């Protein structure tokens, strides 16, 4: 897409302009600055035309966008190839000067072509501004009805939404809320919000209960004056009383006066503007007469804005049984819903693939009604990855509903949203991984004084608020901080097809279908079947994609090594952890533009990795490694200290070497923020002082089956002195995992920075009396204790001064501990609001009344004594505790993070 192309080129130029004067990458900076200014203007234009206000000129706009994208891609290729040539060449010969001259001439030609676009736009700027203000009521009305679900008539039985229907109906007719009350009905496009509300609205009992019942559909291009006129029309106001020049204020007062003193029900359907709650106060009276306002919306922002004080119903997805019931009723209308056992089995598979979205099930039902009701026909559909193919030009109720959600996104969210579909279907996407990938791709720009990482996080929050991305797991802290997320198959299907048409990325899955004509213009290759990349014929095709910036390998992990072929000189991102290589792929070190590198290898990391001067994320996994002992660490090459742009380092089983020579001040990783997977020997003061801005540290200690001493020595090495605590004033998170079949018992615990906010420990075997070191940390907010992190039958601490222990702790996870008794004083854990206890089979009781009443607890797989205690307490004190008890072990490890 053009917007992503423009942002990517802008960021490329900005990186070049920031190069030090002594850099061997020489480019005409004056030309670069002029191009950057032209690109900023193009970016403003692309932002202005999204979301679209009408479809009348969409084809011409799309054609113009394609022209911009093609030219910008060619210009970026020219610059990146030239930079790569200079990086690979060290001769400084006259031939190099000749190449630079040719490049300058080509750069000038492309700048003139880019300038021609901006000249065209500036002459038509007034036209585009006018387009922003022209909102046709007919197009608005058509757009707002795109997502309506037709079950075959308003009296049709609603499948699977009975609970929500009863809850809404009870609220509408209840006298509990005396004043005018508002209910939000929220959910994804096509999930059934409108059908539930319409069922209640059309109920004869509801019609009798209220003096006035009004129903207005607003849509994304909501206008207050138009809404007021629609309300007045339903209120039977004489048209002669309304003049065309009537102001919004006069119309609001007229509606207000008519409804004053009457009990009314007003439904505002398909609301996109979250500020409408403030506007309706001016035309809907707030009296003590049990009036009701229902707002339906895709925007979860309503919930975030109103918080716990707002009433809302979130429409859920159908479960597998409900999905099949709906599909069966739609397909077998003439037989009363009965079908053969063979078709029922296949039909349930098809219904499950619809992932609980009613509108998707309805579309599948229409498809199956047209097919012969044979096992072969149905099995053909069941064997597909998705039961439907969704394209923007389908013009079905489902595609129109989804497309409206997509087209109404601003450009920067469209880029983020499209990129999410590079992952395979059903893939649970890590927020952290997604953020790192998008930053490395260079297709996001900082928003509202945020850095790129913060911008990416906020983009994900916005997409979840728009109900186009589903939150799966939430981090242990923060209401809007998502840990993992997922795309519904319908949105993913739409995005994959949109991305394909935009040449945004291409999916490699089946051979030879994965390499069609026109693949040479793709910027990103996504392998969902890694084996295909090992075929010789695939290597020939891959050579044609010379401008590829990303190779993303998300197929199943390979048991046997694959030879990776990398003919992509301009690669920025190589994510191939799921592939196994015989050795570290040495051709990688020639990729000057590489920012994100993730591989699994059996070989050592070469010293030449220091050539990757733009590398920001380095992730190295070993497929197999012979464990010697923690006293014989395996070190990264010392050249790692020359990667000055490195921000995140994940190296399983490695240690950071001492910087050598010690007096070389250039061997400092100032930008490195997180380290994960290294051994305890990386925590020397000499090493840590060379990483001054580190905020997260994850240590992994892996030893032989019979070598407990090695783990103890490693932990002792970590805890000796104050090397960790004395280096950092600001620190966020520390994690230590000891992997050893035998229980390690270590007496020495690290001295943590006083302001650390999160600690996660596993397998350390610390005695409970050492917990005081952690309990007295004033800023600790999250503590996770897994698999014998602490060991012993009794956890008890007494306060030694006037300060409470665990004073700032908000979240505590206890998992697979051998604790039997947990004794807590009343002054401890004063701010804890979430407690999760899993698989602590010996624990006899939880000191529940020593915690605050707002505590949320989750207990899974503990002793019958604990289960019975909590069931009894919940019955007696149900109003104070949010308690979830699982009686079976489901094996779902969500890192102690809350599920939505």
What is the general shape?
globular
Number of helices: 28
Poorly predicted sequence stretches spanning 5 or more consecutive residues: 128-155, 626-630, 887-900
Q: What's the Cα radius of gyration?
A: 31 Å
Output mean pLDDT: 83
Helix content: 25-40%
The biggest beta sheet, please?
16 strands, parallel
Number of strands: 30
Structure class: alpha/beta
Q: How do the strands line up in the largest sheet?
A: 9-10-11-12-13-14-16-18-19-20-21-23-26-28-29-30
Could you tell me the strand content as a percent range? Answer: 15-25%
Taking the alpha carbons of the first and last residues, their distance comes to 33 Å
Helix and strand arrangement:
Blueprint: H1 2-17, H2 29-48, H3 58-88, H4 94-123, H5 125-133, H6 137-144, H7 162-173, E1 181-186, H8 193-201, H9 204-209, E2 212-219, H10 224-234, H11 248-259, E3 264-271, H12 276-279, E4 292-297, H13 301-306, E5 311-314, H14 320-331, H15 341-353, H16 358-370, H17 375-382, H18 397-407, H19 411-420, E6 429-430, H20 431-441, H21 452-465, E7 470-474, E8 482-486, H22 489-502, E9 506-508, E10 524-527, H23 536-543, E11 550-553, E12 573-581, E13 596-601, E14 617-622, E15 634-635, E16 648-651, E17 654-655, E18 674-678, H24 685-688, E19 696-702, H25 708-719, H26 723-727, E20 733-739, E21 758-762, E22 766-767, H27 772-775, E23 782-786, E24 790-791, E25 794-796, E26 811-815, E27 821-823, E28 834-838, E29 856-860, H28 864-876, E30 882-886
Parallel strand pairs: 1-4, 1-5, 2-3, 3-4, 9-10, 10-11, 11-12, 12-13, 13-14, 14-16, 15-17, 16-18, 18-19, 19-20, 20-21, 21-23, 22-24, 23-26, 25-27, 26-28, 28-29, 29-30
Antiparallel strand pairs: 6-8, 7-8
Helix pairs in contact: 1-2, 1-3, 2-4, 3-4, 7-8, 10-11, 14-15, 14-16, 15-17, 19-21, 19-22, 20-21
